[in-house]
Amino acid sequence: MKKTRIAVVGGGTGGMAVVSALRQLPIRDNLEVTLVEPSDSHFYQPQWTMVGGGLFPREVTRRPMAELVPRGVQWVREACAEFLPADNQLLLADGRRIDYDHLIVATGLKLDWHKIAGLEGNLGKHGLCSNYSYDSVASTWENIRGLTSGVAMFTFPPPPIKCAGAPQKIMYLAEDHFRRSGVRDRISVAYRCAADTIFAVKKYAAVLTDICTQRGIDAQFAWKLVAVDGPAREATFEHTKNGERRTEKYDMLHITPPMSAPSVVSSSPLANEAGFVEVDKFTLQHVRFPNVFSIGDSSSLPTSKTAAAVRAQLPVLVQNLVATMGGRPLSERYDGYTSCPLVTGYGRLVLAEFDYDLNPQETFPFDQGKERLSMYLLKKHVLPYIYWKGLIAGRKWPWLMPESHLKAF
């Protein structure tokens, strides 16, 4: 029997979860799985918030790809240069071509640091820091613990953005650290957000608004960061409605960069107008190429881009992929579930979970719209274990995914 050739492009959370899950299938011996990923390291990015807050060294978030790629998966350590879905082919950066029967795109998002004028060469200097890269995350804690007076500013760009709660999380940790260190009365904490509200789901937005009010955080909306002057410690913002610009002084500035789909995706026949892989939001199957699926941040799925969303998308994609291979109707549907563990201080967390319609879809039998130590401990200690040992290892644990999805494995 001829093996089905499955190409997975991207070795981030979505790509690793898919290849690992495919190797758990009873039909795995009939699958030829190829992973296209140039990086030699894999990062658990959700933990960078706590690295920036001084709770972990950055090294705990990094593991060699060679230790994670499952046996039986062919790992091509090269970048994909072009998608050729009409020919069922991938063109690699080194000129090689890969033929496939089915394709899964999991390339993630691209960080557009260059869209902030004056930032190049200055990140990590002049009080400029960010949790959004492995190279810069250590500078966040250096700035937080070193600040004893002045303005601590935190930014949020226009969407798309991965882990949209992260820009707030580090702000709350910083504010808590300043308070515990006895310097809060000498530091102004400011949040400059390009969105119109602090959070999309009303229930959690109300909680976060109250926290900002109670803790004296200056939160302003519809302002996006467009330029920095590091030596002068100035940040320039543009209003998203009327284009007005203003410049503010800072002493530390945590930057969340603009983001977009990688150019290999946005310039391909797979993309929609926004540049993302155009899939059906319920089945994860491409709307024009039925042998193509996408998962995670590179997809057009209209939900928050988080690892928790990938966890919910994974069994839907795998079952629908297997159904497509067998010529059967696609029966599994993704409801847009995603989660954002909103760290609101050391020992405090609001666990936001919701669906496409922005309705809370909470896991635990209590009100998750309240700050809780238990949820903070879940984020700090349990979720990293689930990530490394469960999600990207392809484990079929009932508590990791809905029972109705387990038959895919």
The CATH topology of the largest domain turns out to be FAD/NAD(P)-binding domain
Percent of residues in helices: 10-25%
Strand neighbour order, sheet with most strands = 5-2-1-9-20
Shape: globular
**How many structural domains?**
2
Just give the CATH class of the largest domain. Answer: Alpha Beta
Number of beta strands = 22
Quaternary structure classification:
single chain
CATH architecture of the largest domain: 3-Layer(bba) Sandwich
Task: Give descriptors for this structure.
5-stranded parallel beta sheet, alpha/beta, 2 domains, disordered C terminus, 9 helices, single chain, FAD/NAD(P)-binding domain, globular, 24% helix, 409 residues
Task: Provide a brief overview of the structure.
With 409 residues, the protein is an alpha/beta fold.
Task: Give the topology.
Elements: E1 4-9, H1 13-22, E2 31-36, E3 41-43, H2 48-52, E4 62-64, H3 65-68, E5 73-76, E6 80-84, E7 89-92, E8 97-99, E9 102-105, E10 110-111, E11 128-129, H4 137-146, E12 150-156, H5 166-180, E13 187-193, H6 202-214, E14 218-221, E15 223-229, E16 234-239, E17 245-249, E18 252-254, E19 259-260, H7 263-266, E20 292-294, H8 307-325, E21 338-345, E22 348-354, H9 373-391
Parallel strand pairs: 1-2, 1-9, 2-5, 9-20, 11-18, 12-13, 12-18, 13-14
Antiparallel strand pairs: 3-4, 6-7, 7-8, 10-19, 15-16, 16-17, 21-22
Helix pairs in contact: 1-8
